Amino acid sequence: MSVRQAIQDVTDRIAARSRDSRREYLSRVDAAREAGVNRAVLSCGNLAHAFAACTPTEKAQLAGGKTLNLGIITSYNDMLSAHQPYQFYPDIIKQAAREIGATAQVAGGVPAMCDGVTQGQPGMDLSLFSRDVIAMATAISLSHNMFDAAVYLGICDKIVPGLLIGALTFGHLPAVFVPAGPMPSGIPNDEKSKVRQLYMEGKVGRAELLEAESKSYHSAGTCTFYGTANSNQMLMEIMGLHLPGASFVNPGTPLRDALTREAAVRALSLSALGNNYTPVGHIVDEKAIVNGLVGLHATGGSTNHTMHLIAIAAAAGLHVTWDDMSDLSDATPLLARVYPNGVADVNHFHAAGGMGFLIQELLESGHLHEDVKTVWGDGLSNYKVEAKLIEEKLTFEASPKESALPKVLTKVATAFSPTGGLKLLSGNLGRSVIKVSAVKPEHRVIEAPARVFHGQEGLQAAFKAGELTGDVIAVVRFSGPRALGMPELHKLTPALGVLQDRGFKVALLTDGRMSGASGKVPAAIHMTPEAIDGGPISKIRDGDMIRLDANAGTLTFLGDEKEFFSRTPATEDLRSQHYGMGRELFAGFRSLVGVADRGASVFQ
Prior knowledge:
Strand content: 5-15%
Mean pLDDT: 93
Largest sheet: 8 strands, mixed
CATH topology of the largest domain: Rossmann fold
Strand order of the largest sheet: 9-10-14-13-12-11-15-16
Distance between the termini: 36 Å
Low-confidence stretches: none
CATH superfamily of the largest domain: Response regulator
Number of helices: 22
Radius of gyration: 24 Å
CATH class of the largest domain: Alpha Beta
Number of domains: 2
Shape: globular
């Protein structure tokens, strides 16, 4: 299968740009493999510490130095619905390892916070930084050098990117990512969204709002809308790091448990002690990254990955840019309509044909690289399947040729849009990204006066006071990585949605985030340079005319540019927001973090 020239061109320039750094990375991977797992040369005291809590049989196996040992990195906690199912995974994985004569140990745990819980709260300021904390926690977990392979248990926003960055620093080890799956469908997402807007307008009370939210988020499993958590799962599968068909199987089902068992066996089969050595550092190359980006565009995925995939690529010695992403979006058709880009949820997407159908369509139309390494063997064609449990045996059957729900998941020939869901915006205000897949065409070009706020609380107060009574581009600044840690600003969505429904031209411009739940209001996010660095966003004043053109990919101050750039940048005393809820511990992160279009990472 040949890939389309536009896709190949982006792949080639990533490879050329990354030639030296990728070669250095692979040299480190090879050196780590040659050094080998350290169990055989550990002192008796070291080894005794490492298996003190194991069973006598496991101690004997590990003491021999030849038994395969699988590391488990888990993000389990029982407060978050997506991660609660992981409570039972280590036992399933250990049993699967024992059945093939291997051992498995929980190497360590990583934190898992939920943006849904912290929206609009001080804890949200830790969210983006938690990705790099998770990467470091992953490295610490594996630093005992006791493992021949590892499985990674993670689902939500920053957890999977952090786990993968950490895994890539141990790129000589095989890595299989193991999802927990989405919760069953609750009330329709559009119904929940309507109640949120009614609450903002004062037409329903808190009791009605909580009832609607609870009916939407109602059980163990991932939230069912297509935000960052479910974008993560799509990425891990299309990049060949999941088992085929694993992403969207509900938790607590026999099929889910069978996939988990097989993930453990598969990870061990890929170790350097066998004949099918497949380390994660070899899987995640420029072709895998491009496949991930194509999948993101084809499904209208999370804007958070305009930072996460750059940081992931960098961990593998690859340099990816927003321009690469934008060019791939222009070359990729939109094949999925999942809330907030439609009314369906990920369970409907999975029932329609899911990842197998999506990968099949994109491969056969030349939008994906087929010639890649995966945890399931060479070639992405291995993923054109559905996972099923037939007579208690895990089976993979060919994906259907037709979607069961064409309004949710469609073929390339009947794509919902000829281009993907993400767009790069640039102009005299800097660079930002916008998710357009949920924005109706009539709302993609907005020319309106600015109303400036230093934080989302100011906008909410202005809305409640009835001050927003016309067309407006709401500018929310001092929310970038260096300022606050780049919190998500989803508390603004209902208010801006109400204004749009009243017939006003409305848009958001911010150096903060909106992520995978970005909805019907056009939002230019991740503005770079950010306000605290004196970027153009810091010079905008109330009443300035701004034009956001998502079709042309431009974001422009309309007026006297010479006068505009001569203005003194606005400043804000943020010290009160750097303390409390643990934020004081992240002063070092705020000083080290890079810019959004380079991954907003503290590592480079």
